[in-house]
Amino acid sequence: GNSVTQMEGPVTLSEEAFLTINCTYTATGYPSLFWYVQYPGEGLQLLLKATKADDKGSNKGFEATYRKETTSFHLEKGSVQVSDSAVYFCALSVGGGSNYKLTFGKGTLLTVNP
Amino acid sequence: NAGVTQTPKFQVLKTGQSMTLQCAQDMNHEYMSWYRQDPGMGLRLIHYSVGAGITDQGEVPNGYNVSRSTTEDFPLRLLSAAPSQTSVYFCASSYTGLSGTGELFFGEGSRLTVL
Description:
The complex is a heterodimer. Chain A is mostly beta strands. Helix content of chain A is 0%, strand content 50%. Chain A is built from no helices and 12 strands. Chain B has strands at 4-7, 10-13, 19-25, 31-38, 42-51, 54-57, 64-66, 76-78, 87-94, 105-106, 110-114. The termini of chain B are far apart. Chain A binds chain B through residues 32, 34, 36, 41-46, 49, 51, 89, 93, 96-98, 100-102, 104-107, and chain B through 4, 30-31, 33, 40-43, 45, 48, 50-51, 58, 90, 92, 94, 96, 98, 100-104, 106-109.
């Protein structure tokens, strides 16, 4: 079956520090990969995505590269801000058409201190 | 820009009571789903629907019912609430056309406590 493993949290950083949140996956077929972010008290929203190997997704200074050879999709940001404090979820979907069930990792809580 | 709207945002139930969580979307998405979020468990799929009149079970369907009579609405029913159903529930929808990539649009969540 499909599964996503992401690094355990919580992660606590100082403002302007470098961020990496690791994500690896197992999947049948060729998945699309996603990072979702959940700010306190809100629902999840898409942060970035990549739909094929070697694609790089990017948004709001965050980046992640789809690495098929290592089955990974690590999230990085060069300089985090207090406003980046949130829970980050790695996810995958396999198939197209009506087969859009996402498989989520357990989430990583990031706290950025000023 | 309403997107996905969930009601109620908060609810407290007693064991054995029934209730319905409402979900509506105005994006004409065929795919709709319900997840529950529990500490340390991530998000787990309860039920999903790929169009009006079609529903299917996800990872944790027991104790929940759904129906999809219209494209817009996808209510989640708890028939006899149990403390194990204390959770935050999220409704999410997606476009499933040829150009879709599986991006889900989430509601703000409904926090349910069962005493």
